[in-house]
Amino acid sequence: MKLIKCTKNPILSPNLENSWENLVVCNPGVWYEEGVFYMLYRAAGNDEDHYIRIGLATSEDGINFIRQSNQPVFGPSEDGPDMGGIEDPRIVKFGNEFYVTYAYRPYPPGQYWTFEHDVIRIPETGPCAPLVLKENIANSGLAVTTDFKKFKRLGRITRTNLDDRDVILFPEKINGKYAMLHRPKQWVGYQYGCEYPSIWIRYSDDLMVWDEKSILLMTGKKGTWEEKIGGSTPPLKTKKGWLIIYHGVENGGNGFYRVGAALLDLNDPTKVIGRLEDWIMEPEHKYEIEGFYKGCVFPTGNVIINETLYIYYGAADKYIGLATCNINQLLDTLIK
Question: CA 229, CA 303: separation in Å to the nearest integer?
Fold first, then answer.
């Protein structure tokens, strides 16, 4: 079972005319409603600090996207905890409002592809500075919008001393509670039950208060394409379960990024009822290999339309690609 990549990939590339997006365009959140695909995409320019912002593009066919502004629609705050840059939006909708989870840092990361793997720029701080400042730790925040043009920044929804990204909300309450997937990077070792960063799930009565105990949902598999794993796209409710598209990284997190699929129980998503052994997408084309991460497909948006699953992904940390499949075929494969 493999995804079919769009022949027009990459469907969105850096825009040389705008300084804030002339180097990187990747990792989009996507929503489909009333015949329109809305895409919030991660963008950055060729500045030394590497500030990251969010742009907006729309499409009627899911392939040909048109930018809706020559300015970012959402960016880092001027003096708040996310002033270092915001990235990787994931979109769900409750009522008439869209809730967007995103990752951020207190300081810009610098041009990370010029450093050693998994290294970012560290600022100078005083001896009493909290860990989030000393190590420029990535946290996750929540924002709300009704039109993808004006956003209300609600604040942090993860612990400041954890690099806790890939934070993704379920699109509806489950047994009266909100649910979230997350991937705390430091939760590894015997006491956590996983050797590498893994996918956890937790519940809450309030979208801004996530203090209930997290449950380990899925771990990677040593010596495979998915040693380190994390959530990718918002869970999709299907007749057979919650469809989870996730990413896996070989070599303990220092290798190719590939894409996997799993199915969770509708009433109790802590139960994994199906998980494919093999990846459904991997880097293979020039635009997925020759970029700022050499060998990366990283999904962050998905929708189902007329039995077709659309998966939008960042390619090599530089471009945006689209891959599709028949949703029923994927679900049948997962059940088997």
Answer: 22
Amino acid present at 7:
T
What is the identity of the amino acid at 203? Y
Question: What pTM, to 2 d.p., does this model score?
Answer: 0.98
Paired sense of beta strands 139-145 and 257-264, if any: unpaired
pLDDT of residue 336: 87
**Nearest-angstrom CA–CA distance, 195 and 229:** 11
As a whole number of angstroms, the distance between CA 302 and CA 30 comes to 6
82 contacts: CB under 8 Å, gap ≥ 6: 76, 104, 105, 106, 139, 141, 153
The predicted pLDDT at position 63 comes to 98
**Using an 8 Å Cβ cutoff, are 61 and 121 in contact?**
no
Instruction: Quickly tell me which residue has 């705390």 as its tokens.
Output: 184
Structure confidence at residue 252 (pLDDT):
86
332 near 20, Cβ under 8 Å?
no
Rounded Cα gap, residues 314 and 307, in angstroms: 23
Phi, psi of 311 (to 5 degrees): -120, 120
**Whole-number Å distance between alpha carbons of 264 and 236:** 10
Residues of the chain where predicted confidence (pLDDT) is lower than 70: none
Q: What pLDDT was estimated at residue 52?
A: 98
| Interatomic CA distance for residues 230 and 138, integer angstroms | 15
